[in-house]
Write a structure and sequence with these properties.
This protein is mainly beta. It is 10% helix and 30% strand. Strands 6-3-4-5-7 form a 5-stranded antiparallel β-sheet, with helices on one face. Bound molecules: zinc ion. Zinc ion binds next to helix 1.
Length: 93
């Protein structure tokens, strides 16, 4: 039997049960990675997230931290205009 693993959102600390493995950091509702490129922050969402296959620009003011991010934090930031979808992003591109 698979050992139970959890994925924890770096921003709000919410725990989510993992659906894949400890290495992938993907769980239902928590399958987004936030990374920094130069001065800019981006998030990439994967299977398990409501934002699957989407990329977002993350504004520093959002308070979002690098690493694992949950859907709740991402949708909150979006509703405040502190995260913006990169509509030109092609996941498979
Ligand atoms: Zn969160």
């Amino acid at each position: 039997m698979k050992k139970e693993e959890k994925v924890i959102c770096e921003t709000c600390g919410n725990e989510n049960k993992e659906i894949f493995s400890a290495e992938t950091n993907q769980a239902y509702g928590t399958a987004t990675d936030v990374i920094k490129v130069g001065k800019n922050m981006y998030s990439y969402s994967h299977y398990g997230s409501n934002f699957d296959l989407m990329k977002h620009f993350i504004y520093k003011k959002s308070g979002i931290k690098l690493g694992v991010l949950c859907d709740k934090c991402l949708s909150e930031a979006k509703s405040k205009g502190l995260a913006k979808e990169d509509v030109k992003f092609n996941y498979f591109g």
